[in-house]
Amino acid sequence: MLTTIFLFLPLIFPLALSAPSQPVDKRSILPWSKTLRDFYWAVDRHIIEAKRDPDYPNNAPTCDLGNATLPNNGTPALPGPGTDGSFLKHVAIGRGRQNYTCDNATAAPKAIGAKAALFNASCIASAYPDILAMLPGLAINIPMPDPFSAQLASLPPSTIDLSGHHYFDSTGAPTFDLDVIPAYQFGFARSAKMNTSSAPAQPANTGLQGEPPVPWLYLNTINGTTGGIEHIYRVNTVGGSQPATCAGMPAAFEVEYAAEYWFYAKPS
């Protein structure tokens, strides 16, 4: 069944793929897990449903972000999107590292930023929300020597393309550069954290070392932002949390994480 699924991935993600890529057996990249099994089953189910449609094979879904619904079941719920007239502009899967420092062995680690590659999941969010929800749990298992590595042109097993980078700038502002790829020019956003929400406790959200997920976030953009981006949400987080104390930890360390990022903009 796996070979069949890989052959039909372009059918499931026809609008998420902007260019053909080299064939890669994704089974050699990701370890087998319940999340990966559920991903394959979901893809296979969508293939079967598409083939049953009388309009097949001319029934590819449209990439309409108006159909996408932001996950917002953290505690408490984050402020809802769109109340100020903003619209969903982009959805990305982030895969990277949370950065922390330690003053001494008895201190609590301090969060000092993050660095992540962002992958274009807009069309999956629009047409296949069940598959989108699985991607952070799969992404956390992808080896990532450097989130900004030129080798990270796409994210297995969905093969969605790189669309940007996330980092903290010299002033400490969470920054999202969505103009790094010529084919995707979504804007550049500097932001400030407005609200946090505890991520739902689920086994699939635990990190590589068994750590809980970092909180969900709601951010507003600040000066220096382009592309009309107004609001940013970080949801469906996996891993990334620091230990309770700095005992046994170095002065600076990283914890790997994955998440969904939702970008909202105002009409120009």
What does this 3D model show about the protein?
- The protein has 268 residues and is of the alpha+beta class.
- It contains four helices and nine strands.
- The protein has helices at 2-12, 34-52, 122-127, 129-139, and strands at 87-101, 110-120, 154-155, 160-168, 174-177, 188-197, 216-221, 229-239, 252-265.
- It has an eight-stranded antiparallel barrel.
- Helix 1 (2-12) crosses helix 2 (34-52) and helix 2 (34-52) runs antiparallel to helix 4 (129-139).
- Residues 1-28 have low confidence and may be disordered.
Individual helix count = 4
Fraction in beta strands: 25-35%
State Rg: 18 Å
Give the SSE order as H and E letters. HHEEHHEEEEEEE
Multimeric status of the protein: single chain
Key descriptive features of the protein:
single chain; 8-stranded antiparallel beta barrel; 9 strands; 268 residues; alpha+beta; disordered N terminus
Structure summarized in a few sentences:
This protein has helices at 2-12, 34-52, 122-127, 129-139, and strands at 87-101, 110-120, 154-155, 160-168, 174-177, 188-197, 216-221, 229-239, 252-265. By secondary structure, it is of the alpha+beta class.
Q: Helices, strands, pairings?
A:
Elements: H1 2-12, H2 34-52, E1 87-101, E2 110-120, H3 122-127, H4 129-139, E3 154-155, E4 160-168, E5 174-177, E6 188-197, E7 216-221, E8 229-239, E9 252-265
Antiparallel strand pairs: 1-2, 1-9, 2-4, 3-4, 4-5, 5-6, 6-7, 7-8, 8-9
Helix pairs in contact: 1-2, 2-4
